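anyone else get weird line breaks when pasting these?? whatever heres mine. first is seq + tokens for prot A
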Amino acid sequence: MAKITLENLAHSYLPDPKSENDFALKELNHDWADGEAYALLGSSGCGKSTLLNIISGLLIPSQGRVLFDGTDVTMSPTADRNIAQVFQFPVVYDTMTVRQNLAFPLKNRGMDAAEIKRRVQRVGKMIDMEAELDHKARGLTADAKQKISLGRGMVREDVNALLFDEPLTVIDPHMKWELRTQLKQLHQDFGHTMIYVTHDQTEALTFADKVVVMYDGRVVQIGTPQDLFERPAHTFVGYFIGSPGMNLFEATIEGATARVGDTTVELGGTYVASGKTQLGVRPEFIRLSAGGTGIPAQINRVEDVGRHKIVRLTVEGHETNAVIGEGVDIPAGTDRISFAPEGINVYANDWRISAKGDAA
């Protein structure tokens, strides 16, 4: 395992970048702790795979350094970094059996035959392919081949890091859950440093100790799933994490209060903000009422999804979502919403700001 340090790292695919907008990966400084499991999460084109390929050695960055346990490996080829990487689409040797495919990286390192057999048998069971170990890979389905790729990454116990680039794309939904669980167990058993690229928040939140959210080539937040849900550092994080995502309301910040339309909202702290200012409130913290105080709202429809109801509303001309517990009644004639104070986040120019005297 290794601590991975990214120092002043940035990358542009242009030969002579002139501005920050020319960079596919904006400048980044971060330590990936030895033995932790990370997920790189974001929509397509946000820079996830670019960052992973720089860490793996498939891409040399335009600027900055990559260090493994303090050793500069920026210019080192992938083979010298002692990593295992699993790609989006399966890479297997069709003429070999499943067993031979799994054993290949261990044989290349001259490992004892008995130990190779033990590890291959263990990983074969883990990926639910014990019965196919002596079958040729050629005739297998795409998801079976991807399981082999995953297994070849997991069979090594001495790697500095395991890197996964959207490895479950071709896997059927049931097996996705099984393999995520197995990867999590592998991490707990062996403590590898793992970095897992995905655009699927469920995969990221169930797999990782820390989630790295990327947007437009920039890391906008690194945190636990709870951090990302409760305190989104950027409006994109609030929108991208959660189903439905966080509601955003254009607001004028006036110290300890905000104005949303013609309604005053108490913020529970004093804020200094300029530029584009918004309140971010997750659907779970929206309260519904009929008459009285609150922000005018109109219910469009109610969706009962079993564990809770999703109430779709129009507020200040924008679609707004509220989540209501299954046993909670929606007030008859609902025409107002308010916010639970603990669920209000304040944003200036898309970045979360803290009240005076509060920690970030």
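and prot B, same format (seq, then tokens)
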Amino acid sequence: MENTDQLMRNRAKAIRLIGIANELLAMARELEIGESSSAIPESLYVGGDAREGGKPAASQDHPIWVELARQAYEDRRRRTKIFRSEELFGEPAWDILLDLFIAAKERRRVSVTSSCIGSAVPSTTALRWIAILEKQGLLVREADPGDARRVYVKLSARGYAAMLEYFASASRSVVRLDDATKDIQLPR
């Protein structure tokens, strides 16, 4: 019984630490791309707008969201495998956004070529979607300073905040359940 209690306490501590680490990564990402939270559009504020004391989605990070993104990405690959058809479930823009969100959480750079491969569509189609996502302000391209032939893509601050908002709203019941377990005081 005591082992179970200790495991639950350790799990709660680990979840809190992961949440703090993800929040720090989000803040570092903002600093890295040179945009402060004041540059986040008011439409991306959770719980009201900036004047009402709402917090930007980037500060509402939770460690489960990257896991949900990974699961969504893997689920999309699994459907193609099970139904044995790549034509049935194409949504390259979403695949690109999922891949870039996961990469941002892992602090990993993604080349345009890798993003094309990750979208599971022909390169020309993927490049068209990358251009559309860039035009929408959801991702940015960066030249590799060490190799002029390579270009990286990453979520913009707006794209990152939108993904956080999506997973916050999509996973609110899971996060509430997780937060409820943190509030339970375990006997010592």
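btw re prot B: The chain has one domain: 2-183. Residues 2-183 form a domain with the Arc Repressor Mutant, subunit A fold (CATH 1.10.10.10).
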